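Suppose you are handed a protein chain with no further information: no name, no annotation, nothing but its sequence. What can you learn? This example shows the usual starting point.
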Amino acid sequence: MLDAPQLKLRHTAARREVCFLLDGEIVRVENCPPTMTVLEYLREVAHRTGTKEGCAEGDCGACTVVIGERAPNGSGVNYRAVNSCIRFLPTIDGQELVTVESLSGPDGTLHPVQQAMVDHHGSQCGFCTPGFVMSLFALYLRDATPSRDRVVEALSGNLCRCTGYRPIIEAGVQMGSYPQPRRWSRASAATADSRTLLEAIHRTESLHLPGFYAPLTIDEVARALETDPSSVVLAGGTDIGLWVTKQLRDLPPMVYIGSVSELKTIRHEPDGLRVGAAVPLAEAWEALVRLYPRLGEMAQRFGSPPVRNSGTLCGNIANGSPIGDSIPVLIALAAQVELRCGAATRYLPLERLYLGYQRKALASAEFIVSVRIPLPSAGLWFSAYKVSKRFDQDISAIAAAFAVRIECGQVAEIRLAFGGMAEVAARAPAAERALLGGPWNEAAIDAAAARLADDFTPMTDMRASSAYRLRVAGNLLRRCYLEYSEPREPARVADVVAAEGRE
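A reasonable first move is to predict its three-dimensional structure. Written in structure tokens, the prediction is:
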């Protein structure tokens, strides 16, 4: 085996190969198709068939693997579960890939997560089992003795049609009762070998494959888009991946921003929180919840842990879906997007980014650099709500976010934003006018709720009818009023269900 300096030299020189770690070995993939998914590589090239394809869209969790990435300070490796079915292989260049085959010891001894699944009868047909194991494994590396709630949340992106979830959850709760393995315990996950090898394959030059470019700086991103404005900007791929796996589209050249360290930072600045375009949703939501605790349930219900670990907040903004849950939240908070085209930078209120369905106020070759969210201000009441058929991992029928400031019993400031009510997520100007400057009372709320019909003409689809959406939107405004008038922490659906179960 080559030593680290030799590995570094070879990897730097070979700019057209994808390089990653698998089971302590460096894997080099030459002539990699830009849209080959990690799942396709594992099953069709590496013949590691433990990882399964279920939905091919990041919903079922059968394809879950764990990715390890060098910590920013170089002190260790950060591991997270992702969906391999919509993750393009070139995006894991310079990282470590862990699959279900990686977990057992050299003598075949099962990892505690695997043994717990066996002992608690957590598998029946077995098809979904590897994905459950990998989601629990990612949790194990952070917390080997998690609470039941943490196990349930970690498994919210995994579906099973056979056993029911009780034995699987029990396995997760009990996995810490087994002796810790030498490899893949919380203490040993970021071994010296992994750190050394990841340092050796750390890329110091941009990866450039036919149809795939991974620049290392923002300037390189800007130049690439100026050179070919038809290129698509790729961040987490939780949406673009489906263009390939479900829509079978041929993609234009991709400019991948996940290797740009400047875009992977969250900064607290005097005028607000700045979230870079390549910051994963999991980290972005965590930072937002620290500022605005009432976003806790919205953050928990946004996708699943593997989706939040891959997707990005700015990617959700750039996608611009009318049912993108983060957009009404950020509009209500008066967020701004930082845009760049060539050497020029400008800032735009998020609510002005959307011109219509899938139409945005972006110039040719312009891209999102960051989103800036104002810090909480004294007296500002903020709340956000999501209405969907399922609690976990479901697309919203309606999402709403409200920012209200009351002074001397009068509404001094009001921002009402809704998703799922129109072709874009947007504010409700007529309802806002009905409240601004007037008293904060039930009659005013009823009048504002009635004006929502002037602001929106919702569509009827499989998730909800137009009449239902209008009625629920008004009821969410009433809920905000009641919570503001009688301040208390709103009850979570999961807490209510748990309480009813105990009774």
